């Protein structure tokens, strides 16, 4: 592809060190690189080794070596990552300053707002890349906005009514609002991204205008934001720069899916972090077996021991269980009729972009709010209902799948999913809303040279 300018703008990209955050920002980096921008991803050795960060020939990787990382938990790891990056960042930027292409712009995961002040001190412009929907930022805005005079009951005692958002019950709110003691560092980072909104020079969101039209229009009255997604789509349609960071089990999944009828398979995945209890895993396993559908279930190595003892042998005729899958390829396969999902934003966008209706089983963070939009706003899925003990029963699992795969409502959900698929494709195609926003961002970066 032709470069936009003869002198390349150099953009440094700093992802948050979690697979669900790395994938979309790498995909965005590939889009920038394909349009003639010089891109360097700044990360740590652990991410390169553990998350298979393969970015292709267009992107450079600058990896920071380190001693052993904390393994106690997410909070300790994120604190350690912040300390290490703040210590090394200035040296990295200065090193590039002596090269042919000094860094002019830093693109950060929106959770890494603690680097913005330092980046500005070093003369860089900063773009905050959001891996969650605009709706979440609007919601957090009202919690944190210092000028707000409304006393909004975020304790779940009453439904929450906010401009541009649907009415939110307690079960629709992000877990960080209701579960005040869980993951304190993650919670600090989530709220911190909104405290530091005004510090970033650009606010980029992995969504598209039509998908969140009302809330996008409202937030634009408060901040200058750019929708640039779904970033996965250009890579998926253009194999010149393939989007998958991980492609294990591709042939296994493809061969199995090829042998199934059109729309007969439920794809099941709960992402890279969700951890379910043994009782819930047992109910899911039984529910999938009770349903009338085939199922392809991604069960991570760390979760496999929670499956019932005889499940693997019993499920062999009806299901395929893998440790990981090429999710985009699976969702795009003609035999997949439904996605049983935790409603992480990446998974949600991928299902919408490929026209796949969903059964929602949200776990934490933004997932409950995403599920609300999937079911009530975009109307492309249904949400399973938990019992009093918080466990979703096998009967509920089986009946929810049947509702989407076999009943009249499932036809309506599929029609809506196809509608959103077409709108997503329009947004990223040349001249679409997201494509225009990316071009404007690149032009602004080029103007810094």
TrEMBL record:
<dbReference type="InterPro" id="IPR002213">
    <property type="entry name" value="UDP_glucos_trans"/>
</dbReference>
<comment type="similarity">
    <text>Belongs to the UDP-glycosyltransferase family.</text>
</comment>
<keyword id="KW-0808">Transferase</keyword>
<dbReference type="InterPro" id="IPR035595">
    <property type="entry name" value="UDP_glycos_trans_CS"/>
</dbReference>
<dbReference type="Pfam" id="PF00201">
    <property type="entry name" value="UDPGT"/>
</dbReference>
<dbReference type="GO" id="GO:0080044">
    <property type="term" value="F:quercetin 7-O-glucosyltransferase activity"/>
</dbReference>
<protein>
    <recommendedName>
        <fullName>Glycosyltransferase</fullName>
        <ecNumber>2.4.1.-</ecNumber>
    </recommendedName>
</protein>
<keyword id="KW-0328">Glycosyltransferase</keyword>
<dbReference type="GO" id="GO:0005737">
    <property type="term" value="C:cytoplasm"/>
</dbReference>
<dbReference type="GO" id="GO:0080043">
    <property type="term" value="F:quercetin 3-O-glucosyltransferase activity"/>
</dbReference>
């Amino acid at each position: 592809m032709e470069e936009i300018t003869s002198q390349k703008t150099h953009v440094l990209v700093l992802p948050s060190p979690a697979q669900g955050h790395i994938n979309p920002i790498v995909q965005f980096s590939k889009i920038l690189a394909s349009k003639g921008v010089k891109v360097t991803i700044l990360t740590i050795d652990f991410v390169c080794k553990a998350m298979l960060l393969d970015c292709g020939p267009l992107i450079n990787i600058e990896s920071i070596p380190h001693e052993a990382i904390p393994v106690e938990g997410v909070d300790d790891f994120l604190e350690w990552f912040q300390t290490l990056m703040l210590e090394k960042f200035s040296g990295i930027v200065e090193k590039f300053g002596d090269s042919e292409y000094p860094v002019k712009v830093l693109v950060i995961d929106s959770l890494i707002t603690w680097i913005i002040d330092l980046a500005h001190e070093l003369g860089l412009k900063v773009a905050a890349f959001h891996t969650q929907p605009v709706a979440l930022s609007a919601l957090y805005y009202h919690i944190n906005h210092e000028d707000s005079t409304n006393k909004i009951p975020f304790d779940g005692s009453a439904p929450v009514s906010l401009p541009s958002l649907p009415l939110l019950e307690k079960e629709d709110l992000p877990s960080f609002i209701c579960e005040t003691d869980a993951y304190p560092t993650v919670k600090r980072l989530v709220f911190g991204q909104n405290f530091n909104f005004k510090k970033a020079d650009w606010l980029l969101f992995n969504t598209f205008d039509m998908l969140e039209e009302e809330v996008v229009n409202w937030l634009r009255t408060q901040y200058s934001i750019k929708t640039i997604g779904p970033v996965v789509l250009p890579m998926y349609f253009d194999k010149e720069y393939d989007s998958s960071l991980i492609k294990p089990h591709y042939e296994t999944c493809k061969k199995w899916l090829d042998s199934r009828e059109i729309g007969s398979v439920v794809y099941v995945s709960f992402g890279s972090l969700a951890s379910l209890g043994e009782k819930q895993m047992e109910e899911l396993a039984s529910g999938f077996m009770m349903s009338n559908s085939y199922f392809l279930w991604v069960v991570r190595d760390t979760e496999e021991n929670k499956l019932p003892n005889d499940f693997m042998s019993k499920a062999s005729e009806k299901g395929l269980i893998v440790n990981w899958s090429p999710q985009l390829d699976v969702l795009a396969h003609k035999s997949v009729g439904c996605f049983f999902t935790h409603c992480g934003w990446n998974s949600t966008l991928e299902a919408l972009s490929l026209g796949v209706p969903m059964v929602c089983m949200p776990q934490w963070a933004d997932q409950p709010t995403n599920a609300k939009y999937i079911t009530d706003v975009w109307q492309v899925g249904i949400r399973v209902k938990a019992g009093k003990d918080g466990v979703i029963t096998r009967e509920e699992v089986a009946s929810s799948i049947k509702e989407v795969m076999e009943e009249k409502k499932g036809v309506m959900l599929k029609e809506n999913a196809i509608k959103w698929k077409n709108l997503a494709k329009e947004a990223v195609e040349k001249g679409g809303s997201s494509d225009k926003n990316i071009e404007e961002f690149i032009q602004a970066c080029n103007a810094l040279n």
